[in-house]
Fold these 4 entries.
Entry 1:
Amino acid sequence: MTPLLAWQPEATWAWLQGSPLLGVLLTLAAYRVGRAVHHRCGRHPATQPVLVAIVLVSAVLLATGTSYGEYSRGGDLLAFLLGPATVALAVPLHRQAHHLRRLLLPLLVAIPLGVVVSVSTGFWLVTLLGGDEQLAITMAPKAATTPVSLVLSGDAGGIAALTAVLTIGVGIVSAVLGPWLMTLARVRHPHARGVAMGAVSHGIGTSRSLADDPEEGAFAGLAMGLTAFSTAVLLPVLLGLFGA
Amino acid sequence: MTSRARPPRPASVVFLDGLLWLLGFWFVGELVVRTFGIPVPGAVVGMLGLFVALQVRRPGPRSATLTAADGLLAHLQLLFIPAGVGIVAFLAVVRDDAVPIVGALLASWAIGLVLVGWVVTLLLPRRGR
């Protein structure tokens, strides 16, 4: 007969490793710390909560010898929410819809152009700097939002999971430095700033834009959606032209 | 979605309703995309669908959908953490190809951002700039 109480730490640890609980808990805790750090540092752009959290979670995984596969049992649960969050981007757009008409032409020109530039510079610069063709294909769709970029990369012969990392990387760089670079380049209008952020740095750039200015954020969200669409259509064509 | 001329719902139900609308539009978006072989994520089509629905129905500021969307978007960065942590699986690759990876990423990002910003600025109607 099994005793009612039994001291069994090994079984507990084995259960924890197979459960998504640890991954979710760790991610939420790291994000909470990231937000606190961001707040403490006077909302300094270099302390984006997502960046702080990725560094923290990665450090914990490396320190405890936990594989990414074990962590992602929990991570995948959170990543699932990217679906409803993408749908939710309709709300800021709805609030700014009265500005849409004057942005129609700029969007129709700038978004496809942005995709062509992002994909071709990503592809060619990797090649130019000594990377192989697979790495170039992996880099090419990085401006589209993660769920899109990783599928496109895999289909085209790139490393899908690495594309996801590069996509997040470009998003973080943009959330940290994007507004600064645009001010330097004299891009001042909130609509132009928002569209540019969404077009090159998807949801992470959009979250910075939303925090800076609701109008800028709404157009970042729209540009993110349109860029995902245009990248899906244009990537195979462009890679075909590059002979990849 | 609408909250006009109805008694206010408790916060718990508002949350549930809002989540249902967001997941519902995602679901419809996936069905459309997959059925017709459209090369776009279903969630983006769901976003366009919700946008049209919001424009037509004009829900009040305390509608369930708006509340749930604002709550989710406030923590948008949280949802990208798992994919970003994927870096631990690629530390060796990034170390070996640091120059093409970091160089191409930064340069391609900067060129794209400035170019799109300039083009939109140029094409915006002058009035009200």
Entry 2:
Amino acid sequence: MNKQILGGFYTGATAFAVILIFLIVAIILFDILRGGLAKLSWEFLTQPPREGMTEGGIFPAIYGTVVLVILMSIVGLPFGIITAIYLSEYTTAQSRFARAVRFAVSNLASVPSIVFGLFGLGFFVQFIGAGLDAAFALEDEVIWGKPALIWAAATLALLTLPVTIVSVEEALRNVPREYREASHALGATKWQTIWHTVLPNAVSGILTGAILAVSRGAGEVAPLLFTGAAFFLPKLPNSLDDQFMHLGYHLYVLATQSVNVELTLPLQYSTTLVLLVLTFTLNLTAILIRYRLRSQFSL
Amino acid sequence: MPIMQLQSTTSARAERIDFLMRAIILVVATIALSMIFLIFIFTFKEAKDVFFDAETRHEVLPTLFSTNWQPISDSPKYGIIPLLIGTLKTTLIAMVIAVPIGVLAAIYTSCFSPIWFKELIKPVVELLAGFPSVVIGFFALFVLAGFLQSLTGAESRLNALVAGVAMSLTAIPIIFTISEDALSAVPKSIQEASYGLGATKWETAFYITFPTAYPGIFAATILGFGRTIGETLIVLMASGNAAISSWSLIDSARTLTATIGAEMAEVVFGDPHYNVLFLIGTALFLFALILNSIAEFYIKERLMKKFRGS
């Protein structure tokens, strides 16, 4: 009897923890949906901010975020995917080198995002950027040696590198070894095997990994604080060395630095909602691909 | 012999492509991997003046371990003690909340949950993990802060407690996911042996599965801890940002990460203040490395040994 009570208590406590997580998620979602839908409109999505950001929309921030995410993917994903191919196909899992690299990658994944921001400032802006200026720009002109879209994208690309490497490598390792052996037995070279056999079979897994990495980068604000995000810009960025507005940064600025919080609160809620929709759409796509993948392999 | 010739040229071409691709992949992978080391080199490069530049050293070191963080004044003081206290306070609050919730929920999911419910729990946790931290910070700033203030009667609306509670929300998914993996990795034979001896489901879960998976759960806790220390946006938005040396949970606090986030944009390049912020960044970087190494080695050594039964 005593044992049953104890058992009930233990089981109940664990179930309670799960319910608590559900509750937390529900409360946050409910609050943001309720607050966010009130102000959400076509104008809000397509207009720039007005009246010192107390009126108008967030189009430049949406534009900046999307451009940043696309640039980040162009800069980062090839590096991540190729590194994963290298790790999975050109090294053996037991080799000392592969283990060391995997250790470095997992360490990189645990480095705080603000440190990536520091690195972006120190390496991209002040080393590469200022270096480019010193080499090519007319005297004392600053083109690349300042926070800019391209440096923010490069910083985020680096931040998402470990996510890409780890998940793509797993996708590649899920391709049965027999496929490779069969291909080699037919006389295919290593690259032919990778290109015609391994990659086609891993494509959904690679896609999932890529999307997960992108969605991680899309919501990240800390590294942008000093690599290129701007408080307010009168025009949209149209060159790689421009600064840009960003949904998350916009939210941060409105929430912490606006003079009249009451007035801008509805705007902040709607901005949050848009940011959430953006990152969740990416995540959801990844989850859906993964489910399809799972049923495909179980068939 | 035109056909033979054709074959040999195509295979020679294939081999050339093979060689070329191998070289390209090697170069790209090397660049990506060297970035990992560059991160360390460049954060340290900007921080090193604190120790190696006589003038900077003279300005920074005497006050570095004092309790005053006043980098922008006539006689700047770079005391990191209040920042350390703030970081420790918020992180500990977050862990005290996140570890029990994360681990208990993982036990439920791995040991008690019916399969259909498990399929629901995981996406919900992923959803929680998918909230950008600026969104959590926003929620903490406008909803959680008011709620906690009415609960504790805190003087300042934004304080270490608000930030800590909000940060726990980012740690829960990590702790849950890794713990759940560790619990599910426990060989079924061990649990079946326990059932065979007449143990109930919860006895097996708490006395057999949980202790066996303990190294993995420990690693989960360490990684959650590391993640919480590195959290920036939430503390920037919800902690009150006052660099005071107080251990009270409902006083405002300022963390190491928030200091970098708030001050780096306005700092003068090459200034001692700039160097000190990079020094803090280097410290955070090293700390993340240490925590990650502990988690990695602990989990690999201990867990593997346990499963092999030695």
Entry 3:
Amino acid sequence: MDWQPFAAMNLLRNPFGELTRDDRVRAAVVDVADCIDRLQQPQTALQFIADCGRGKTTHLLSIAAQAPAAAYVYLPEDERCPPIPHGQPLLIDEVQRLPWLVRRRVFARGGGLVLGTHVDLAGPLRRAGYRVWTYHVGQDLTAERLAEMLNRRIQLARLRSGPIPQISETEAADWMTRHGSDIRAIEFDLYERFQQQIGVG
Amino acid sequence: MAKCSLAIELDEPDRLYTSNDRIRGTVVVRADDDVQCKGLKVRSGWATHGRGNIDSHDLHSEVLFQGQWRSGEEHRYRFDLPVSSWPPTYHGRFLSVDHYVHATADIPWAFDPKESRPYQVVSSTAPNAGLVEKNTVTSPVIGGIVKILLVVFVLFMLLNPMLWIFGIPIGIGAGIWWFFKKYLPKKLLGQVEYTLDQESFQPGETLRATLRVHPQKDIPINSVIWTVTGTEVCVSGSGSNRRTHRHELFRGGKLVDDIRTLPGNKETRIPLELELPNEPCFTMNLGSNQILWETKICIDIPRWPDWNDSLAMQLAPSKELVQAASVETIDNGGSVSTQPTTTAGDEPDVTFAATLEMIQSVIDDDRQVDRIVDAVRDLPMQLNLIPQRRELYSSSSKTHAYPDGHVVIGQTIDPVMPVTMFIPRSLADEFDQATDRPWSGEGSIVGYDHRQNRLQLRIEP
């Protein structure tokens, strides 16, 4: 297995590249048990508010992975609104892009809603009869949690049993000083760091 | 917590695989608890990793086992999967392509254990992907359709005065661009033709291109700048998160500054040559992840808009590269496989004894036995047997037996396994005389009789 560029680090690949949706859920360090409980109640809406790269989508995908009847839809920028599926709960990523009329129809459907958004939609949700729970993603990020997130990604790229690189809490704190709670920016930098370690970068 | 763990052991983990190869190995399952497995699935395929969204393709998958594993048990399941010859294994800065054997155990109401093992693939040919589509667009039929659509569009715009509000500024902008970028340079230079000698090149090969210019009068120029680039282009995310990552793998070219004037009424031919890098960074188009090779040419005209053109090219693998890579693998020795890579058309070296051992290791699993038998069916082998007695034809024998031959019951020598031999009439006497004595000769495995638990062999005349 010496031909593998990351074999010397006991890794299959650079751990900070893009992940599949499944792997993203596996790597997620989020506790969504509370969210799942709240969604058992009727007319409940959860909204995850944050800037890009803070973990909104990761939260939504983690909830979707635990709810067999869930439906997830991502609303792309500058493209036509895709058909909104039916699901319990219905998870909509970047919901602020939903056209007003479609949003009204979706909110009028009832059922559980989980929204990833850049803007607070508590008002329209309440007017549609929803009980709203708002989570500000990334605000509670600590060096300990960041280190756990990054180490879980490294763990996912493990080649075989044995030691693998680890990110310490001190290093995680350094990254937070540089990028704040922007986990995506931290992962981009770490990608480059790992590439440099194998001499490609 | 998973109730069992998976491990994949490849028979030749460091071998270079190529087209028509098969990857063989064993999935080892260790159960920590009693586990009901809905399916132990194994699949071969490739996946990208790096900065771009994951592109992947599964070539083949099959279920190795369904049933129960008891706590503390270890089970081994053989697999034999086809290898995809394209894309080849590649490790770059933003893009990496690896081929994997993936194993997954579907455990109800539990976390499904997964395991992946990469293996290395070299390619001798590439699909015609990534080439510039400019050449195809210039075909007369498509060109005609494009022109008709353009005329219809213009008429539609003209007949709808409301659309003039949008059409006029767009038209003016496009017109200015065309006038400065296309019309003016061409007006000055006349007929200009930029061609590559071929569309597909191999690493280390010399790329040859030609620029032909036929102006109507003497045209002064500063230089001709020719650039050749190979770039990794990876797209990550989508929508507002969409980002394109580019990494230049190679940049080369030529600056022709010894020609200061293009003479009028005469064709000037400028030959261009460049040695391509010897790296296997082939043209690839895998969706969000690409390696693109492009050539650009610019005639720098003083105080006038420059003339530009570009052509895509394909960097493709060669058979020699595959052979060289195979030899290198053998030369490395040590932990590296000493088994040469089989080339297309060559059969791997399968011995009768090794096949018997494999069958014996899975003798309780009919499906596994059939899989092994299917894999080696009709392969000529050197057989070592002990014939015991002649038998009358039974209905189960008819498929494989010689029309005028005989059926002989016997056993193999090492390991011992009961066999049914279908022998041609010409060897009947030889087998009668060899009863209970070792017999060697050529033949092949043709089936397995599960009712009598006998391996079926066809002996060659």
Entry 4:
Amino acid sequence: MKRMLYASPVLIAMIFGGFFLWGLNPERDPNAIPSVLISSPAPEVTLPEVAGTGVPGFSHADLVGDGGPVVVNIFASWCVPCRAEHAVLTRMVNQDGVRLFGINYQDQPEDALRWLNELGNPYERIGSDLNGRAAIDWGLTGVPETFIVGADGTVLYKHVGPILGNDAISAFTTALEQARQEGSS
Amino acid sequence: MIARLLLIITLTLVPVTTALAVEPDEILSDPVLEERAREVSRELRCVVCQNQDIDSSNAGIAREMRILVRERLMAGDTNADILEFMVARYGNYVLLRPPFNAQTYALWFAPLVLALFAGGIGYTVMRQARHKTIRPADLTTDEEAALQAVLETSSDIEKNK
């Protein structure tokens, strides 16, 4: 009993030390919000096209269609990081043949159109989410957000914020590669 | 000086009436439903600002969530239905009050366990302090012999008096 008592300061120090180690871990992002969508089917929402873009809107059925994984990117013309991310997405489409769908979040069609005309349109389909309701179904916490949807319509990966910087890009392409392998096997 | 201090204390203690984030066009005409909407909104976390409920948040997405809450109330959902709807999309994270289930037992019981642990240690320390009696070690055989010798000499002196 007495020995246990003498050990207790060490024990307490170890418990606190453990917490601090965990808290100081640079890999840990305290603001990260776990997504419930991962490994569950993509939301059943049907989004109309953004007028004038020349690409159709999409529904859940379009995600499951052609066998390969689809990248779904939620963007808006008023979102500054989206502008920077746009180049990365365009490169993925042009170089790796990524299938990219867009959800235009709370954006006036004319603003979205001007933005796409200026930067180019890498999107195969763009759904308009004028009132932001579809984004809530996708569990959006802020634009931009990007999902990888597997060939069977299951959400496999979620990236919060712009896909910028080597870490984010390599994590994303790795996840995409995995999704492709799962789809082909 | 004291007056100023008192003023500072009162000002910090008075709850600041949070600037209402709910905009006039969101408010429902039915006061009962509106009151329920406010209740539900206070249970839901703003997913952008994270430590605020959507009722007091000015974030765009919080506004969308408030409107959604009101739409579902109009459609006849119960408060619990709406919370469930949000949890299905955002997980338990969206609830400001974490639910009590197998995943959160550690969270709920940790304070109790820590308090019991601390109490246990405190109790043992106090008990030991109270019952501690200073009991000297037994004499060694040498000391015993020396003591005997002293006692004997002193008794001899007594006798010879």
